[in-house]
Amino acid sequence: MKAVWRVLGLIVQKQRWLFALGALLSVVVLLSGIALLGVSGWFITAAAAAGIAGVGAVFDVFRPSASIRFLAIGRTAGRYGERLITHDATMRALAGLRVTLLERLVRAPFDRMARLRGAQALNRLMADVDALDAIPLRLVLPVGAGLITLTVAFAGLWWMTGFFGALWVAGIYAALGFVLLIFVARTAFDASRRAERASQAIRSRFIDLIRARNDLAVFGLLEQQAGKVLDADQRARNERRKVFGKERLTGVLLGTGSAIVVGGAMLIGDASIGSGQLTAPMAAILVFAGLALVEVVMPLRRAVAEMGRMADAARRVDWSLSAPDDQTSGKATGVGEEKPVALQLDGITFRHGAAHLPVVEDFSLSVGLGERLALIGPSGRGKSTLLLIMARLLNPERGTVRLLGADISMMAEPDFRNHVTLLLQRSALMAGSVREALAISKPDLTDDEAWRLLDAVGLAETIRNRGGLDYQIGESGHRLSGGEGRRLALARALLRNPDILLLDEVTEGLDPDTAKKVLSGIDDMCPDATIIVAAHRQIERDWALREITVE
Question: Is residue 257 domain-shared with residue 139, that is, in the same domain?
Fold first, then answer.
């Protein structure tokens, strides 16, 4: 539960005054409810006693009636304000938390990012944050307000009806709340967690079914994947039944506990009346207060059912927020003054995780301004890894990388990205038009600039034949071929006009004529840029001015 408290601190941190006001209103609402029933019970009993005694004509009905109206209106207004304020504060806090989590996600180490499935990661993040609203709204605020209300009610009942009656009413409800939170919630914890995980499995498998439906149909696996979705759905239903069973058990315990409290209050009141310690109207206050105080523990019914879901979500969110951040904010905001070379690597060593052998060991390289360099060598020797290190997406185990004379680990992130652009073998394209895909790099992109870029990468004629810049490329660019998608991503990279352009097998899958046109277009669009390409094809090696073998 430590993660729950840490996440609660983050939620409350920026909205502490709203939550404090909401908590105050929660206490006011509960106390108003108790006072309303208590005064009503006293009023009815006292009026009846006055009538029996024959003094009803002089009995003051106006002040009790006014008090009842005031408490009823105050309770209604307080409940409305409490719900409005606490929900608004929670939604604001969770909106900020979503932004924080997304910022952490995009700054995660590259090897972690490479393992993420976009739709699944986003779905998981959104579901976890949605589950966190139950922590303040269904757990902390109700429990905190309930404890304060029970304490105040105990003191008030002790003053009006005596210690033993107050202890009976407040003590039984306090014990009931403790049993629900500690023992019943523990039995529902695992079922609640499994139900949430099954729900996430449904979403993930359904996304896979929709996105890969054509491939699944071709290979005859469509029914098998649909069966996996249905299996997850059945699992979720079974676990929810268990959770609902625990919730119903909580309701039974609450009803039984309330009946015990009221029954005991009646016996205590009767005994107090018989001994002359209390009048009948005052004894009625004890009974009706016992009826009203069930509202203090009633919110625990939902909290018990969602405890596992809340704790699981809090644990993942807490881990995401405390996971190491791969990006360096750095104190330096600019590049070196002398700018002797564009990019310099000194003694770079890198290994993946706990691997015994490094991928790259003691590698050094110096690239001049405006130079075209090809990294060559067999597959798996570290060419792509070196590009990722140069792009500050991987941190070397040893060694330094300098950009225009400045250590990249000390450069501010925005400044570094203004100088360096990396195009991987697989680049992400989002659903939308060709214009929108390019505008990610330059929001004020003009049509003339777009067509010039598309012509440089050999896509202009293809896009014109398909309807122009408004042509919809589809989710992940599925309406483009592999080569067309890579060239569109290349056009987007060229639009940034970087000082250092890092390319990973940029012409892979293109015919020789198209590859020549693309390489020529890169020269035209970025004539002064320093370009480093991980090359497998001879045409890329011939285009470069220098080769370095990575062994």
Answer: yes
